[in-house]
Amino acid sequence: MRPETIENYLKTIYNLSSNNTAVVSNQKIADKLSLNPATVTEGLRKLHELKYVVYEKSYGSRLTAAGSKLALDIVRRHRIWETYLAKELGFGWDEVHAIAEELEHVNNVKLINKLASILGNPTYDPHGDPIPDAKGKIQKSNFIKLSETKVKGNYKVMGVTDHSPTFLKYLEKHELIIGAGINIKTIEDFDNSIILVCQKKEVSISPKAAECIIVQTI
Amino acid sequence: MRPETIENYLKTIYNLSSNNTAVVSNQKIADKLSLNPATVTEGLRKLHELKYVVYEKSYGSRLTAAGSKLALDIVRRHRIWETYLAKELGFGWDEVHAIAEELEHVNNVKLINKLASILGNPTYDPHGDPIPDAKGKIQKSNFIKLSETKVKGNYKVMGVTDHSPTFLKYLEKHELIIGAGINIKTIEDFDNSIILVCQKKEVSISPKAAECIIVQTI
DNA sequence: TTATTATTTTTGGCATACCAAAAAGATAAT
DNA sequence: ATTATCTTTTTGGTATGCCAAAAATAATAA
Ligand SMILES: [Mn+2]
Ligand SMILES: [Mn+2]
Ligand SMILES: [Mn+2]
Ligand SMILES: [Mn+2]
Asked: Within a domain: residue B112?
């Protein structure tokens, strides 16, 4: 298997199993990588062979220790590049993901560590995702989705789970950026929209969008 | 053809036809890309099909206008990255080529122009090679090889034609770095070694090495 | 000019990464 | 428990990028 192919699979499995213990379905992988399910079945068989993945057919897959190590490495590269592009090169948080998607495959430890060092070894990327350190150690947080908040509560935006430019530009328009404080006013009976106040302006957030916004109680 | 494959061929043809008019042989391309000659024949047939190359069989190849444009673009990316790695990220001139070899395939105009702008739109890379501007315009120089110099002449090192770490480290050891002034003392009758003075120290340069050092009269 | 040598091309084949359609298996609904 | 619906796997097949060996062509030396 080509390194790039391996890296794309492992990163995807890592991202989809969030806590890194949950088993991941073929379909989810196929969706994320825009591949035919048949291709994913083949891919997983090979990754199992390579001992990067434990793949039990018709059940699901999870990373081995070796697979996890590799996955954390590429996740680190991706997120360091995103941070570098945003902080040092002036790109918007809606632009960095696509570029990092390519840069992440350039495997040079010295390069990534240098970028990280220039950035002051950041622990979070522009989307609020934690950045593994050079040894693969990653910050564990107990943030919740906006969709799981309680009415009348005060929260702070900590991250997003959707990196698409469309979504990120939409958030920016409402000033729902990382670090912004929000106050949940009420939930619409009709469609479960969340009405909240952010930067003194009232905003209505659809349930779908609320699923993609990560917050912390304050 | 995969973009990376196309880019590697076009860049190689460009580099091998220096003045960009000379025809390039299959063998030279095969050597540079570490490919079997049979593979190169196939590759050129496809690039001809794609109108990036004029390939006359059993004779040679040269770039079309479209191929030239693409080649200059990737040469720009390669050299801007090399310069950025050296000047902004602290890598040695012997390290940058290998990393740039991968980074050059990340095709994002805004990114490269940003890097160039941070560097002050440089016109030469760490090896003395000219960097095409955003429009593909490239500085033409009339430098000569150290092997073509005259005895008793005073010259300045302007570049190298070999980017291998071994060669570059060797040069560095003798302080034969870009910008260094040299004075040609004599040429050894026995093996045609060039005896010169650089930074007040006498150095003997083999004909093979002298072929790879670019200088200018002062 | 004729041989010798070097280069290029053709041929046949292999490995990887993918997909569409059919078959099998697992889940959910009635 | 049986059917209907998703999900996964199998099967057969394509496109790309590569190579080794043989055949053809070009360049060089005798
Ligand atoms: Mn991203
Ligand atoms: Mn991110
Ligand atoms: Mn280089
Ligand atoms: Mn260079």
From this structure: no
Is B19's pLDDT higher than 90?
no
* Beta pairing class for A53-56 and A60-63: antiparallel
Q: How far is the CA of B55 from the C1' of D19 (A)?
A: 22
Range of the domain at A54: 3-63
| Domains contained in chain A, number | 2
Subunit contact A115:B90, Cβ cutoff 8 A: no
Residue A186 is given by DSSP the state E
Report how far ligand 3's centroid is from the alpha carbon of B145 (Å).
18
Q: Is the pTM of this model over 0.85?
A: yes
Please report how the helices B3-16 and B37-49 are oriented relative to each other, as an axis angle in degrees rounded to 10: 100
Q: Is it the case that residue B20 has pLDDT exceeding 80?
A: no
CATH of the domain at A158: 2.30.30.90
The amino acid that residue A32 corresponds to is: K
User: What does the mean pLDDT of chain A come to?
Assistant: 96
- Mind listing the pLDDT tens digit for each residue in A51-81? 999 999 999 999 999 999 999 999 999 999 9
A121 is near strand C: CB distance < 7 Å: no
